[in-house]
Structure prediction request, 231 residues.
Amino acid sequence: IRQRLAKADKIEAVSHLSAAISHEIRNPLTTVKGFLQLLSEQNYPDEKKKEFIHIAVQELDRAEEVINDYLTFARPAFEKIEDIDIEKELNHVLNVLNPLANLNGVEVKKKYTSGLTISGDRSKFQQAFINLIKNGLEAMPDGGALTVQTFRTGSVIHIIVRDTGIGMTNEQIARLGEPYYTTKGQQGTGLGMMVTFSILRVMKGRAEIKSQVDKGSTFHIRFNHLENIEE
Ligand code: ADP
Ligand code: MG
Prediction:
């Protein structure tokens, strides 16, 4: 199962990423505010109070997830173009995700070529890969292996993220990056891959995805480091 992705049209569906994200955060906040107002205005029975609080906490969890998909590594400064040390940044992402890897019993394998750099915004690069690698870890709830590999051929830098997880059907691959597309129910936002693809697009990275149900998935990202400098 192979698919080249030109996600531009799908990403255009949400013309302003930040508008979509703030909408996703505003909704749960409005709900929470409503429940707090109810609780302050009337003396509800304990049962009801518990129910309100439970819903409010769920809504806040959701807002937190949306923020994580978008702003885990956000920096207050405006977008800054700098040299990105790929090995260093991938290690940083893997450190952040280490608790999840441990929780799922996933073995993380690193196959780096040292000294590879591309230019771009470091925090955006981290965000793109945290969303990608987090999905890989979440695809292996009963353990498995996550491999992160980097190498260079000519002017092209390759980053490969491979998991031995639940995999995807062709239909699922085709819908990757579509806003709000998730198979994780309440646990998912369906925004992670949209954010990843939009960052890759700005950095002129290309993603090739192969996946087989119950075998796992491979995300092969290519950056042409002569091309990826912002014009
Ligand atoms: P979320 O993780 O919140 O569901 P994403 O945009 O990150 O949203 O991913 C969208 C969907 O793509 C996931 O719900 C899942 O079905 C699928 N997916 C992404 N990466 C993988 C992977 N490595 N293995 C299996 N399915 C994946
Ligand atoms: Mg995700």
Helices lie at 8-12, 17-41, 46-71, 86-103, 122-138, 170-175, 192-202. The pocket of adenosine-5'-diphosphate (ligand 1) is lined by residues 131, 135-136, 139, 163, 165-168, 172, 176, 181-184, 188-194, 217 (CB under 6 Å). Strands lie at 2-4, 82-85, 106-111, 117-120, 144-153, 156-163, 205-212, 216-224. Residues 46-71 form the longest helix (26 residues).
